[in-house]
Specification:
Blueprint: H1 3-18, E1 85-89, H2 96-107, E2 111-115, H3 118-127, E3 136-140, H4 149-157, E4 166-171, H5 173-178, H6 182-189, E5 193-196, H7 201-233, E6 238-243, E7 247-251, H8 253-259, E8 268-269, E9 274-275, H9 277-283, E10 288-295, E11 304-313, E12 321-326, H10 328-333, H11 340-344, H12 350-354, H13 357-367, H14 374-385, H15 391-404, H16 417-423, H17 425-435, H18 438-442, H19 481-488, H20 497-503, H21 508-520, H22 523-527, H23 531-543, H24 554-568, H25 571-574, H26 579-591, H27 601-606, H28 610-614, H29 620-635, H30 647-663, H31 669-680, E13 681-683, E14 698-700, H32 708-723, H33 731-754, H34 771-794, H35 798-815, H36 821-834
Parallel strand pairs: 1-2, 1-3, 3-4, 4-5
Antiparallel strand pairs: 6-7, 6-12, 7-8, 9-10, 10-11, 11-12, 13-14
Helix pairs in contact: 1-7, 2-7, 3-4, 14-15, 16-17, 17-34, 21-23, 21-24, 24-26, 24-32, 26-30, 29-30, 30-32, 31-32, 31-34, 33-36, 34-35
The structure holds adenosine-3',5'-cyclic-monophosphate.
Length: about 850
C-alpha cells in the first residue's frame, strides 16, 4: 500500500470516528478544537459534518445510482492508481475554505492548485488537457458577482477530456437551505456535487477522496466505452445502439458507410433506418434475438435485408439500450453482384419476401452465405457517397460505377489508338496482336482441314522427356576456362548471353541455370534436392525448348532467368522473398516458354491446334508452358526437383510457378501493370476533376508489401519485366533480340500465308516491315511505362535509360532508312567492326 493511501485511510477512519459532530464549520464559524464529544445538536441523526441533501446522504450523483449489471465487462474498467489532483477556483486569495481543501489534499498525498478566476481556469485546462487534468475541481459559488460558477461549470464541461472530472460547487449554508431544489441548477450546469462551505480539513479530506474515487471510476468507464466504440467502428458488421425509446444514439462506421449516415448524427428514430422482424423482437423486451432486419439506404430507394443479431441491455429491470448488429455480407451478396444498376433498382422486393415466411427463411439462408466481392462494397460505398452530393459529383460517380460494372476492369483501352494507327500501322499491328484477346475472334474466318498446322515446326503438345541426358551430369566440372569466366559475370546487366549461347553450342540454359540456381541462389537447399536432380531438370527443360525458333528458344529462357536473378539481387526483393519463393521465381523464368512453337496463341487458335482446343482458346501457350513444366518435372524422379518437398511447400511452390508463368501472357499486360501501379504508387496530388487519366507524378509507396497478395503482384511484375527486358538491355543485345523476334514474326506470317490462315500481324511481312518502327512502337507502348514502374520499385534506373536510348537509336536507324532484316544485320556487322574485338566463340562443353 502506498504511504499516501495509508495516510488517507487513517484520516478517513479518524474522520468517521468524529463525525458525530454536526456543526458546520464555516469561514464565519471556524472549527472548534478537535473533540470526540461534539455537541449532539438539533439534528443528532446526521452522520456527517458536511451538509448534503436534507438527509445528509453523501453525493448527489445522477450517473452512478444504479449498480452495474452482471455482464458489464469489468476487465475493461481499469483505473490505474494516481495521486489525487485538486484544482480550487476561489476568487478570494485568502479563502480559508480553499486553504482547508488544499491542505486536506496534501495530507492525502495529492497535489492542489488554486486559481482565482474562470479565464485562468479554462486556460489551465486547455493547456494541460492531455497531461494534467485534475480529478476534482472545487468552485467557489458563494459570490456570483465575483465568479459565475454555473457558467464556469458549463465551460469546463465543454472542454475536451473533462467528462470524468468531479466538479464540486461550494455554497453558503444559508443559500443551500433556502431552496430545496436549488441543487438542480448546479447539476444541470455540470456540477457533480453541491457542498456547504467548510474549513474543516478532515472533512475536506474525506470529501476529496470520495470525489477522486468517483472521478477515477467515471474516467475508467468512459475509457472503456471509448474502447468498445472503437471496436464497433472497426468491425464489418453494421452496429446501431438505441435508447429505450428506440432512438438511435450510436452507429458505427460500417452502418454509416452502407446506409449513407453521418457519424455525428444526433438521436434518430430507429424506424427511419430499420424495419422488420428484428425491430419487432426488440420491442418485446427479449434479451437476445436473431432475425432479418430491413435497412433503408439513403442513397438507394430499395431497402436491403440483412441478418441481424440483437440484444436488450438494462442495468436494472428496465431497458436502457437496444443493440443491433447486422451482417453486411449476405445483404450485399443479394444485391446483384456488384452492379449499381441492381443496387439502385434491386430486383428483390423485400416487402413481398417479408410477407412470405417460407421464402423469408430461404432468403435468410441465402443471406448467410459468404457471398461478398470487394467490388460490391466499392459500389455500395460509391452509391452512398452520392447522397446529398452535387449533381456533377453524382454524374461522375455514376460514370465510375458504370465502369466498375464491367468484368474487364483492367483491360486496356488504348488512349491514342487512332493516332497510333494513323501514324504507325506496324506498331498498331504489333501492340494489337500482343494485347488483344479479340485478335483470334476477329480472325476466325478460317479454311478447313489444317489440323496439324505446326507440322513444319515441332509439334508442341506431344513433347516427351529427352532421355539421353545422363552424360551431361558433370556439366559443371567440364566447363572451360572461358565459360567459367563468362559465368562469373552472370549477375551483371550486360551479361553476354549470345556468347554463352555460342560457348555452350545452344545450351545456355543448363549452364547458366546451374551457375545461378545451383550456385548463387542455392535452389537445391531451398527445395531440399541434390544438384544432380537440378541439373537433370535444367537439361530436360532446355531440351524442350525449340532450338529452331529464332527467338523463343532456350537462349531467351536463359536471358529471362538471368534477368530474374539480377532482379532478385536487388535489396527490395532480397529482403522480401523467402528462399523458396526466389527458387519458384527462377524455376518459372527458366521454364516460362517451354515448348514454345514459335507462333503465337492467336495463331494456334486460328489453326485449331490441339493446344487451343485443350485450353479453350484461353491463355493457350502460357497454360501449356506451366502444365508441361510440371508434367516433365513430376514424370521422372531423376528430374523431380520437388520430390523432397512436403505437401504444403510443394503446393505453395506450384502455385507461385503457375502464377508467374501465366503472368507472362501479354493480353493481360495492362491488367498486371495497372494492379502493380495502383498498389505501389500513390498520386502525389489530387486528381483531375473527372477523376480519370492524369499525368501527375506518382510516388512509390511500399507499405502494401505486408500483404501476401501484393507480393504476388511483385513477382508477376518481376517475370513480366524479365520476359521483355531485351528492350532494356544495352544496345547490341537489344538489337539482336529485335532481329530475332522480327524473324520469328515473319516466319509466322509466312506460314499463315502459306496455309491460308488469317494473318495475325499483316504488317509483319519480311518484304515490307520496318523493324526500327516496330521497336519504337514496342518500347513506347509496352516497355517504357512498365520499366519506369519496375525500375523505381527495385531502384534500377538503367532499365529505363537503356530503353530510352534504344528507342532513340531505333529512331535514328529509321531516319537512316534501315527497314528490313538485312538492313539490321548490316548495321550489326558495322557495329561489331567498330566495337573492340571479342574472342571467337569456342564451343567447349562436352555433350
Ligand atoms: N523486342 C521486341 N519487339 C517486339 N516484340 C517483342 C520484343 N520482345 C518481346 N516481344 C513480344 O513480347 C512477348 C512477351 O511474351 P512472349 O515471350 O510470349 O512473346 C513476346 C513477343 O511477342
Amino acid at each position: 500500500m502506498l504511504a499516501g493511501e495509508e495516510a488517507s485511510i487513517e484520516l478517513v477512519q479518524r474522520w468517521l470516528q468524529r463525525r458525530d459532530s454536526d456543526e458546520l464549520e464555516t469561514e464565519e464559524n471556524p472549527p472548534k478544537e478537535c473533540s470526540s464529544s461534539g455537541s449532539p445538536g438539533a439534528r443528532a441523526g446526521r452522520r456527517s459534518s458536511l451538509a448534503l441533501t436534507p438527509e445528509d446522504e453523501p453525493l448527489v450523483d445522477v450517473t452512478n445510482r444504479s449498480p452495474p449489471p452482471a455482464n458489464i465487462p469489468t476487465a475493461l474498467i481499469y483505473s490505474p492508481p494516481e495521486p489525487l489532483e485538486l484544482l480550487c477556483v476561489f476568487p478570494e486569495r485568502t479563502s480559508r475554505v480553499c486553504a482547508a481543501a488544499c491542505s486536506a489534499v496534501e495530507r492525502a498525498g495529492g497535489e492542489a492548485r488554486s486559481l482565482r478566476c474562470a479565464r485562468e481556469t479554462l486556460d489551465a485546462l486547455r493547456r494541460d488537457n492531455d497531461t494534467r487534468v485534475p480529478h476534482v475541481i472545487v468552485v467557489d459559488a458563494r459570490q456570483p458577482q465575483q465568479l459565475d460558477a454555473l457558467l464556469l461549470a458549463r465551460a469546463i464541461r465543454g472542454t475536451k477530456n473533462t467528462q470524468h472530472v468531479y466538479l464540486i460547487a461550494i455554497v453558503k449554508k444559508s443559500a443551500y437551505l433556502k431552496d430545496e431544489f436549488g441543487v438542480l441548477a448546479y447539476l444541470e450546469a455540470g456540477f457533480n456535487r453541491v457542498m456547504v462551505e467548510t474549513v474543516n480539513t478532515t472533512a475536506w479530506c474525506a470529501e476529496v477522496l470520495q470525489a477522486r474515487s468517483s472521478a477515477a471510476c467515471s474516467r475508467a468507464q468512459i475509457a472503456a466505452t471509448a474502447a468498445l466504440a472503437a471496436a464497433a467502428d472497426r468491425c464489418r458488421d453494421l452496429v446501431a445502439i438505441t435508447d429505450d425509446q428506440q432512438r438511435i444514439l450510436l452507429t458505427n462506421k460500417s452502418w454509416c458507410r452502407m446506409l449513407g449516415w453521418r457519424l455525428e448524427e444526433g438521436p434518430r428514430p430507429i424506424h427511419e433506418a430499420a424495419g422488420g422482424e428484428a425491430l419487432r423482437l426488440a420491442t418485446t423486451g427479449a434479451r437476445d434475438w436473431e432475425a432479418p432486419v430491413t435497412l433503408r439506404r439513403r442513397a438507394a430507394p430499395d431497402p436491403i435485408m440483412l441478418p441481424c443479431r440483437g440484444a436488450t441491455i438494462g442495468l436494472t429491470k428496465t431497458t436502457s439500450h437496444i443493440v443491433f448488429v447486422c451482417e453486411p455480407s449476405a445483404g450485399e451478396g443479394d444485391r446483384g453482384r456488384g452492379s449499381l444498376h441492381s443496387i439502385r433498382r434491386g430486383s428483390l422486393d423485400v416487402r413481398s419476401v417479408a410477407s412470405d415466411g417460407l421464402r423469408r427463411t430461404s432468403l435468410a439462408k441465402l443471406q448467410g452465405l459468404p457471398l461478398e466481392a470487394p467490388i460490391t462494397k466499392v459500389i455500395s460505398l460509391l452509391s452512398a457517397a452520392t447522397e446529398g452530393a452535387p449533381p456533377s459529383t453524382v454524374a461522375c460517380i455514376e460514370r465510375a460505377v458504370d465502369m466498375l460494372r464491367t468484368s474487364e476492369l483492367y483491360s486496356p483501352q488504348m488512349r491514342d489508338e487512332t493516332k497510333l494507327r494513323v501514324e504507325d500501322p506496324i506498331a498498331t499491328d504489333l501492340i494489337g496482336a500482343l494485347l488483344s484477346r479479340e485478335q483470334v475472334n476477329q480472325n476466325l474466318v478460317y479454311m478447313q482441314g489444317n489440323a496439324n498446322v505446326l507440322s513444319s515446326r515441332r509439334s508442341s503438345n506431344d513433347s516427351t522427356v529427352v532421355r539421353s541426358q545422363t552424360n551431361r551430369t558433370n556439366i559443371k566440372h567440364k566447363t572451360t576456362g572461358q565459360l567459367r569466366e563468362l559465368l562469373d559475370t552472370a549477375l551483371s546487366w550486360d551479361f553476354e548471353i549470345f556468347r554463352l549461347e555460342d560457348l555452350t553450342r545452344g545450351r545456355p540454359l543448363a549452364h547458366l541455370g546451374l551457375a545461378l540456381m545451383g550456385g548463387r541462389f542455392d535452389v537445391c537447399a531451398a527445395l531440399e534436392c541434390d544438384e544432380r536432380t537440378l541439373l537433370h531438370w535444367l537439361t530436360v527443360i532446355e531440351t524442350n525448348y525449340h532450338a529452331v525458333n529464332t527467338y523463343h528458344n532456350s537462349t531467351h529462357a536463359a536471358d529471362v532467368l538471368q534477368a530474374v536473378a539480377y532482379f532478385l539481387e536487388k535489396d527490395r526483393l532480397k529482403n522480401l522473398l523467402e528462399p523458396v519463393e526466389a527458387a519458384a521465381a527462377l524455376i518459372s523464368a527458366a521454364a516460362h516458354d517451354i515448348d514454345h512453337p514459335g507462333t503465337s496463341s492467336a495463331f494456334l487458335c486460328n489453326a485449331r491446334h490441339p493446344l487451343a482446343i485443350l485450353y479453350n482458346d484461353v491463355s493457350v501457350l502460357e497454360s501449356h508452358h506451366a502444365a508441361l513444366t510440371f508434367k516433365l518435372t513430376l514424370n521422372d524422379d531423376r528430374v523431380n526437383i520437388f520430390k523432397n518437398l512436403d505437401r504444403d511447400t510443394y503446393k505453395t511452390v506450384r502455385h507461385h510457378v503457375i502464377d508467374m508463368i501465366l503472368a507472362t501472357e501479354m493480353t493481360k499486360h495492362f491488367e498486371h501493370l495497372a494492379k502493380f501501379v495502383n498498389v505501389f504508387y500513390a498520386k502525389s496530388s489530387g486528381s483531375k476533376e473527372d477523376g480519370m487519366h492524369t499525368d501527375e507524378p506518382l510516388s512509390l509507396d511500399t507499405t502494401a508489401l505486408s500483404q501476401p497478395e501484393n507480393v504476388l503482384l511483385v513477382k508477376r511484375m518481376m517475370i513480366k519485366c524479365a520476359d521483355v527486358s531485351n528492350a532494356s538491355r544495352p544496345q547490341k543485345f537489344a538489337m539482336e533480340w529485335a532481329r530475332r523476334i522480327a524473324e520469328e514474326y515473319f516466319l509466322q506470317t509466312d506460314e499463315e500465308k502459306a496455309k491460308d490462315l488469317p494473318v495475325v500481324m499483316p504488317m509483319f511481312d519480311r518484304a515490307t516491315c520496318s523493324i526500327p518502327r516496330s521497336q519504337i512502337g514496342f518500347i513506347d507502348y509496352i516497355i517504357i511505362d512498365m520499366m519506369e514502374a519496375w525500375a523505381a520499385f527495385i531502384d534500377m534506373p538503367e532499365l529505363v535509360n537503356h530503353a530510352r536510348s534504344n528507342n532513340q537509336h531505333w529512331r535514328e536507324l529509321d531516319e537512316a532508312g534501315v527497314t528490313t532484316l538485312a538492313d539490321v544485320k548490316r548495321v550489326q556487322r558495322q557495329n561489331a567492326i567498330q566495337a573492340p574485338p571479342t574472342t571467337t566463340a569456342e564451343p567447349t562443353t562436352e555433350e
